[in-house]
Amino acid sequence: MRLPKPRRPRLPRTRAGQRRLVQAVMAGCVLALLPATWMYTVAGDRLRTAADVPRTEVAVVFGAGLWAGEPSPYLAHRLDAAARLYRDNRIEVVLVTGDNSREDYDEPDAMRAYLTRHGVPDGRIVSDYAGFDTWDSCVRAKKIFGVDRAVLISQGFHIRRAVALCQAAGVTSYGVGVEARHDATWYYGGAREIFAAGKAALDAVFEPDPRFLGPREPGVTEALASGR
């Protein structure tokens, strides 16, 4: 039995039909660009370098994968920037937020170990084990750890979304975008942000609860109280 061939879509033949098609395509493009426009607007004046970011008590470093249990090169660059900010007395505490959804994968502990090897005292590091995505990390920083103001550290292709989401979550934020080699991961990350912008806009509008919220944790407050 031969299956019928699928029909090819036909373009409108009338000028009015063609005009409506063009208008629909243009409207779709505008809608697709709105989330990215929102991110750039919100984060536009809140991006800094490690050398000129305002002094802030807390820095938030977002997880970016592990290689054989160690921070990936992208994550290591983020942690290097946090260690530099600590040494330069621009921050007091580092909140490392990442994925620990299974026993054999623990981003926060790997991030903590890396920071301690690079001069940040263990008592100045606080771990968030349920930072499963950027929105979750921002909401938990505010609601669980009591962070009202922070420096966010990530790669350039991600930092605007991080700032926009943390601002929406109630954390006054400055973003430090660290340099990254333009390899396959960089291009993948940049392409992914196009689609992630839509989810970010929905998160900011509807403010869903994180996958895991849990009780308030005093880690950041205690670390700040302990002094250097």
Structural summary, described in words:
With 228 residues, the chain is α/β, with parallel strands linked by helices. The protein has a single domain, classed as Rossmann fold. Helix content is 48%, strand content 15%. The chain has seven helices and eight strands, in the order αββββαβαβαβαβαα. The chain has helices at 15-43, 73-87, 107-117, 134-143, 156-168, 184-206, 219-226, and strands at 47-48, 58-62, 66-67, 70-71, 93-97, 125-128, 149-155, 172-178. The chain has a six-stranded parallel sheet, sandwiched between helices. Strands 3-4 form a two-stranded antiparallel ribbon. Helix 4 (134-143) crosses helix 5 (156-168). The radius of gyration is 21 Å and the shape is globular. The model is unreliable at 27-31 (pLDDT under 50). Pfam families: DUF218. This is Membrane protein. InterPro entries: Cell_Envelope_Assoc, DUF218. Keywords: Membrane, Transmembrane, Transmembrane helix. The chain crosses the membrane at residues 21-40.
